[in-house]
Structures are given as C-alpha cells and as structure tokens.
Amino acid sequence: MTPPEQHADHFIAELGGFQFRWEQHGEFSTYTFYVQGTETTPFAEPALQTVPVDWLAGLGGRTVVAAHATILPVSSDNVDISRISSHFAGNPIIGAAVSGGAARAFTDFRVHIDGFSRFLILDHKLQPGQAGRLIHRLFEIEVYRVMAMLARPIARKLSPKLSQRDQQLLDITTAMSQPERKDEELLEELINLAAEIEHCLSTSHFRFSAASAYYKIVEQRIEDLREQRIQGIQTIGEFMKRRLQPAINTCNATAKRLNQLSRRISNAGDLLRTRVDISIEQQNQALLKSMNQRAKMQLHLQETVEGLSIVAITTYVSTLWVPWHGPPRRQAGPSIRISSPESPSR
After folding, report:
1. Is 218 exposed, middle or buried (0-12, 13-18, 19+ CB in 10 A)?
2. What is the distance between the alpha carbons of residues 332 and 106, in angstroms, rounded to a whole number?
3. Which residue range forms the structural domain that includes residue 155?
4. H or E segment at 119?
5. Same domain, 132 and 171
6. Which of 112, 251, 294, 320 is the most exposed place for a label (fewest CB within 10 A)?
7. Is the domain of 18 the same as that of 137?
8. Residue 322: inside a domain, yes or no?
C-alpha cells in the first residue's frame, strides 16, 4: 500500500486481516492495530500477532507503551469481580461504568509478562463509534500517563543536587558580608554555580513542561470517560489522583525550585556585581584624588621653577649691562691748511 506523505501526521488503512492506524505526536508516534473477533480468551492473542514480524522489526525508536484492549459483549449488568481479576493475574483491579453506563472498563495499570498493559471492556450497549472513542481514550490515558512519568526520574536525580547547591548559595551570600573574602573569588564561585544551574534548567525544562501538559491530557480523558463508581472498585480517576498526581506535583515542585534557585543566584550575582562596582568606583575616586593632588604639586613646582628662572635671567642680564655715554669725542692733533689762488692765504 502507498505509504503516507512525508509531512503527514496520521494514516489509517485496512491491511488484510487488521485495521492499522498511525499518529505522529510531538515526541512519539502511536501504532494501533484493530482485529475483529479472534480471541477466545481475553488477552490470549494480541492483535500485534497479525502484523508481519519483519515490518515490526523495521520500526525505529523504542517502545514506551504497549497496551492490549479487549471488548466483550455482555448482556447482564452483574459483575463478577473475582472472574474479572483472573484476567489480570489476580492483581487488584481498577474500573468503573463509562460512556453513560453503556460499558464498563477495567484495568490494573500493570505491565504483564507479555509486555502489555491490559484493558477489559464489557460492552452493554455501545455504539461502534462509542467503542472506538472509548478504546482511544483508554489508550491515551495509558500513553500520556507513562509519558508524564518520564519526568519523575529527573526530579529524583535533581532533588539532592538542588539541596547541595542551595547550601552552596547560602555559603556564598554569607561570605559576602565577611571582609576577608575577596569579591573576585566569590564572583567566580557564583558564576560556576549559575552555569551549573542553567545547565540543569536547559536539560530538564522540556521534560517538566511536557509532564505537566501530559497530565492535563490524562485528566481531560478521564473526565471524558464519565465514570460511574462500581461498588468495591477504585475508579480510574481516583487511582490517578492517588498515584500519578503526587508524582506530577513532585516534578512541578522540583521545576519551581530550580527556577527559584536560578533567580536567587541571579539576585546574588547582581548584588555582588554592585558591590564590586562600588569598590571600583571608590578606587577610581581615590585615583582621581591622587591625580588631582599630583597635578597641584606639579603646578606649585612649575611656579617655583618659573620664579627661579626669572631670578636667573635677571641676574644674567645685569652682569651683561654696560653704561652708554654717547659717541666718542675726537682727539686734538696737527691740522693741514690748504690755500687756493682765489682765496687769500691764511
């Protein structure tokens, strides 16, 4: 059969003995196989047995959730809890009347020896469309429940580290008030701490956000089931509140604690940088004051040198000065007289 287009996000087809449905989600894909009336005993023959083994082996990624659902038509409203429990290896069962009382759904939320979790649906008066929607909702509850729980190991791993880094931040902020600690050393420690916390934020932010979103989907799908209590059995909604909600609350608290620690480190960094800036400003003021005093000393020295220069020049000029009494007089000596014929002799 022609495969879906490259950018398709869903595909539905009839493939011989089974119906195939593929959906592409944000970070995972779901493959659903529907087979009509082949089981003699619930969960004895999963629909996956009809799928070619070599095709299954060619699928990429890894299996996160494998769920097996069986719909059995029943005519009586009486429920034999012990008989139903036998289909779940004797485990305590969880279930309720769903779809306005048209069916009853049971599970134990455990992975059995065949690698599948199990859902048993007793069909009282389900319409074909109702049955499809019911199976789809139960599968989505299981898938999103497991996907939400992927954040739990990260929260457990981060919890002791956050306690240590919280104490380290306390030590740094306490040392900021001690004069013997150098600001440069404290700032370096704070930068290293901030880098480590930002790394934790970068590696865990998506997982924590996804867990919160997945849990909201689980709550919505449980609400869509319209559960009605069966006497002596815990409903799916009650089970999720007791088992899944505390884990999600832990993840949310860890994410909030991580963000708060990052903000506190940022505030401490701002405070320490302000302290360093004030110290640098004080040093600059002292340097400017010293330069001002040096300039004044140079001015006084220059004035003194100029005064000494004037005295030296005056003394030098005074030694070179000679009095001037006009042009020199002619000295007396013999004279020569010249006479001409026109003039009388003298």
Report:
1. buried
2. 160
3. 151-288
4. strand 117-123
5. no
6. 320
7. yes
8. no
